[in-house]
Amino acid sequence: MAFALFTCQLLPGAASAQDEPISLADDPFEVTDPNATPVGEAVFGIAGSYERAPSGRVRNTYGAETEIGFGIAPDLDLRIGQSGAYGNLDIGRRLGTIASEQSEDMVRSGRAELGGVTQLGSLYQLSKEQAAVPSVGLLGRVRALYGPDGTAYETDAVALFGKSLVGGERPLGISLNAGLISRIDPGPSDRPHRYLANASIGQAISRDTALVASYAREQQERGDQDFSLAQIGVRHRLRSQKAIVGVAVGIGLNRDTPQYQVAVAVQWQIGAP
Question: What is the mean pLDDT of residues 161-165?
C-alpha cells in the first residue's frame, strides 16, 4: 500500500472528550500520532484507496486495510493490522519492495497482481504534550509482506512527535514521524535498511472538521527513487458515532511513486465513556 497503515487515535490524551476540538496531532493516512490508546479502550479503523501509476500497462491499484489498537497498560497499546492491494504492486511502496524482475515483466505484459501485509506492533507513549514539550511516542512493528514472488519479513522502529502550535476553538498542529525499516533475511538485491520520514500540519476550520496537509518520504530498493508523496485531506468527527471520517488526495513527486492517490478512512472509538 502507498499510504501508512491505520494507526491513529481520535483525540490525544483525553480521547473520550467529545466536546473538545478535533485533534490535529494525528492524521488517518500518512502520519501516525504519538498517543497510546487508553487502557480498556480500543480504536478500530478501515481504509480504502485508489492509485494511478505513472506508467505501465497496469496503472490502476485498489487497496484496503484495517487496524485495531488495544490499550493494554498505561501509555502502552497493542496494534494488529491487515492490508491488501490488487493492481500494479511495483509502484506501491510497501508491496513493491518485494516485487522482482519477474513480477515487473508480468505488469508490463498487462497482468495485475494481488498482495498484502500483516503486521503486529506496539506503541509506547513517552510523554504527553505540555507547554513547549511535544507529545512523543515510540512505535515498533513486525510485518509479513505477501506478493507474487513469495513472502518477505520486515521490522520497523519509528519515533513519533505531535505538537499543537495554536490552541482554542480552531487549533493548529504539526506531527512528525521518523524511523528505520529493516528487512529480515534480505536477498542479494534487497536493501537491508531503509528510512522513512513523514510530516503533517493541520488546521481546524470548526470544532469537528480539520484540513490536513502531509508529506511522506520512504527509501525504496536500490535503483528506485524514494517514495515521495504530497497529500491534502479533510477530517470530520461524527460525535454521535464516536468516529472520524477522513478523505485525502495525494500527488506523487517522482516516477517511483503513484501519479496520484485517493484515500478514504473511518475510525471508531470503542469502550470509551
Answer: 91
